[in-house]
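Hi,

Apologies if this is the wrong queue. I'm a grad student, and the batch job for Cytochrome C Planctomycete-type domain-containing protein from Pendulispora brunnea produced an output file that my downstream script rejects. I'm not sure whether the problem is my script or the file. Here is the sequence I used:
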Amino acid sequence: MSKSFSYLVCLPLALAITSTACSSSDDDSPSGPVSFRNNVAPILQNSCAFSSCHAAGTTNGVVFAGDPAAVRTSLVNVKAPQLPTMNFVTPGDPGQSYIMHKLDGDQKQFAAGCSSEPDCGSQMPLGQPQLPESTRNTIRRWISEGAADN
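Support response: The file is valid. Your script probably expects a header line. Output copied below for reference.
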């Protein structure tokens, strides 16, 4: 087999294998519309509803534990106390949803408008690794889809 023939056969095969491996993901986001009750609320409860953060009895703005409908009501179209110019969740607009900036860790870009904490506080979840992108994208999709009570 000639060297050039090997390149012609092996290179495309290697590229196909690599692109397949890179395009597959551990994306566990729902295939249909994102449900607050089934997809988003469990993320918030499992990642953020700790005794020192967003559990019942804390003063960190929003409580993520308990009834999903009450949690959603405390987020959607409610001004974020740390950044009063932005809602926690603005339906249809993840870029104008404070929760996404806190989860993505880029809330410091709004430091000039922050009210109580320098640089709008810490990334969420506090003291934990950043949530995987697929998890954050589930919340982002729910917001993009209108932040429905579903």
